[in-house]
Write a structure and sequence with these properties.
495 residues; 24 strands; single chain; Lipocalin; globular; 8-stranded antiparallel β-barrel; alpha+beta
């Protein structure tokens, strides 16, 4: 679907300055669409959504393709796409609203709500929700990040034990990761008895009229799947379950709703007061980051604050298994841009190139850009290189000598020795069983496929992540299996 009401139609009635801005916007739109449509024709991704907005005007919403490579439905402006870490900006606005409402003041400390949480060298009574949402915790807890992103909905009551078992101070004033947003959401639910999913509906999505945006994929009959590009065709991954849609990367949003979101952040009239949006966009901590035409010097609530061509730019991207996304807002210009892909076919680089094209042309209508043919050719070459390197990688994994040539063909009786429940204080529970003559496993409920390699060693692949990992069992002197190490983490058998 393509719905476009161009800026050029308003030129005659506009002031000279406004007319010039309208013309720059129209040029930027044209430059992006010409290049993206050329790349679309290569068919390297099943679907994508492009959104460009200008305050006071109808949005440009350009969606093509399908929700999945095979068996999907045609994507349109109401099709939800997963946006991964772009979620943080939405949660950031929610947090500022809840601070304004007195529901969860940003100066509330983690220690107030989780007094039993302990990490050596960290004072939880001094760490606030503001610190959590702006990545200023000073410690990390990888197990919590991994579980919430890939395996399960971690009960709020378990957060302190997981942090206590896995947390370690890193001495960094600013470290971007998911942990702060996970802790904020857990604290919010602990304080109010209401999940972040319900709160964000109430204070962000409903006021902005975002009816096809949610932290629950189950809210929709069809959500765009994700795809890992490969030589022999894309590997399709089902949408995330509700359990792993977390506050640092757990939203699906349609292109039409993305337009509403961008317009609100670009200063268009909305049900959320402008001063609240301004607070969510205000820098909270200095950072140093640069790429392309942008130099980023601050982090707000889920936004990187940057400068490009003399303009203030708010931006954030998202990436997960088989998908990439990117968005930006020029608040002083009243302009916004977003692009969402349901494939990893070099779409991270492509989304950045489209964003940079938009910025460059908007800032300077005479900017030199690669020709459309050159742009298309370069993209095709990058995708082909990715496919070849990925194939080489997987071939190398299967040929690795650690697997012992895949000579072991265990009987069902031999496999039964591994059946049981294994636990780790931070990583959770792995249940190993026999199904249809093969070893199967579930990590915190998420399925793991296994392939026998040699005695006590299996190659294992989590359903949400294509990376093959070692699953090595260990035995006591009497021959009984007592533990398993998966992806470098040791789980102890408990039954």
């Amino acid at each position: 679907m393509r719905m476009m009401m161009g800026a050029m139609a308003m030129l005659a009635a506009a002031t000279p300055a406004a007319a010039q801005q309208n013309e720059r916007f129209a040029r930027a739109v044209q430059a992006v669409e010409e290049r993206l449509h050329a790349v679309d024709a290569l068919g390297e991704y099943p679907g994508r959504a492009l959104v460009m907005v200008k305050r006071g005007e109808a949005p440009i919403v350009d969606v093509i393709g399908s929700t999945r490579a095979e068996g999907g439905v045609a994507a349109d402006g109401e099709t939800p796409f997963y946006i991964a870490s772009m979620t943080k900006a939405f949660v950031g606005l929610m947090a500022v609203r809840l601070d304004e409402m007195g529901v969860m003041p940003l100066d509330t400390t983690i220690g107030e709500l989780f007094p039993e949480m302990k990490v050596e060298g960290i004072d939880f009574d001094a760490l606030t929700m503001r610190d959590a949402l702006t990545h200023q915790l000073g410690f990390r807890a990888p197990a919590l990040n991994i579980r919430t992103a890939y395996t399960d909905l971690v009960p709020i009551k378990d957060y302190p034990a997981i942090v206590n078992a896995a947390g370690e101070a890193n001495g960094e004033a600013f470290r971007y990761d998911n942990l702060g947003y996970l802790l904020y959401a857990a604290a919010l639910e602990a304080k109010t008895g209401k999940s972040w999913r319900a709160w964000i509906d109430d204070v962000v999505f409903d006021p902005l009229g975002m009816t096809h945006t949610s932290a629950r994929t189950s809210d929709f009959p069809e959500v765009s799947h994700s795809h890992e590009v490969r030589i022999d065709g894309p590997k399709t991954f089902a949408p995330k379950t509700d359990a792993i849609m977390h506050a640092a990367g757990g939203l699906v949003i349609s292109a039409d709703d993305m337009a509403r979101w961008l317009l609100a952040n670009a200063g268009d009239a909305s049900a959320i007061p402008q001063d609240v949006i301004d607070k969510a966009q205000a820098s909270q901590v200095p950072i140093e980051m640069s790429g392309g035409p942008m130099t980023c010097t601050g982090y707000a609530f889920g936004w990187r604050r940057c400068e490009a061509f003399g303009m203030t730019v708010l931006g954030h991207g998202g990436g997960y298994t088989g998908m990439r996304s990117q968005m930006l807002v020029l608040p002083e210009e009243g302009v916004g841009f977003a692009i969402m892909f349901n494939s990893d076919a070099m779409t991270g680089g492509l989304s950045e190139q489209m964003m940079e094209t938009f910025l460059t042309v908007y800032a300077d209508g005479e900017a030199e850009l690669p020709t459309i043919d050159a742009f298309k050719k370069a993209y095709a070459e990058r995708v082909q290189t990715l496919k070849e390197r990925r194939q080489e990688y997987y071939d190398g994994v299967w040929d690795d000598e650690r697997w012992g040539g895949w000579a072991w063909q265990p009987s069902v009786e031999a496999l039964s020795a591994y059946s049981g429940r294994y636990t780790h204080p931070a990583a959770g529970t792995m249940v190993v069983s026999i199904g249809e003559g093969a070893l199967t496993a579930r990590l915190n409920g998420m399925a793991i496929e296994t392939r026998p390699a040699k005695v006590d060693l299996f190659c294992a692949t989590l359903a949400t992540d294509p990376e093959p990992e070692s699953m090595a069992f260990e035995r006591a002197e009497d021959g009984r299996v007592t533990s398993v190490t998966y992806s470098g983490v040791g789980f102890t058998r408990v039954d």
